[in-house]
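FAQ: What does the model actually see?

It sees only this:
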Amino acid sequence: MEALKERIRREGKNLGNGILKVDSFINHQVDPALMLAVGGALAAHFGALGITKVLTAEISGIAPALTTALALGIPVVYGRKTKPITMPDNILVQSAPSHTKGKEVRVMVSPEFLKKEDKVLIIDDFLATGNTIMALVRLAQAAGAEVIGVGAVIEKSFEGGRAELEKMGLRVRSLAVIEKMTDDEIIFAKGVSP
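And it is asked to produce this:
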């Protein structure tokens, strides 16, 4: 997705330690037109696989997950990081270390929204180490659902998350794959994610 790569080149900031700040169009302020294009591209890739639910983690995964689900015409479910009083006592919960928060975070889903007959597509803003996405995979599997694939807006290939997900037999699609980040430059992998 060339428009996405251009925005990353123009507005993305390497904060060091593998952290890319894209707050001006994905993580704090969201560009709705770009997110519609992102959702359309991810839906086009996974659309023929019989997906029944899109799953993500709050909060930055919600925008791309919502537009992907909209393009597919299916619901989106997001893993909550804090348990509201409206959520039942019996929940699905997994933990993962968060690179940007610097601590372990929990993601939880009410079992009423993920069922064993569901075919799940996991969508997130970033694929780095894959820890949050693997927690979402475990949540879906705990519900008895089948995880069909993983879609990411931005992948930092130098952090190895894709290899971990592919070891699990998951199909992975990223719209912008970053090979290397320096103080002055963001270098994208050649070609498009398989």
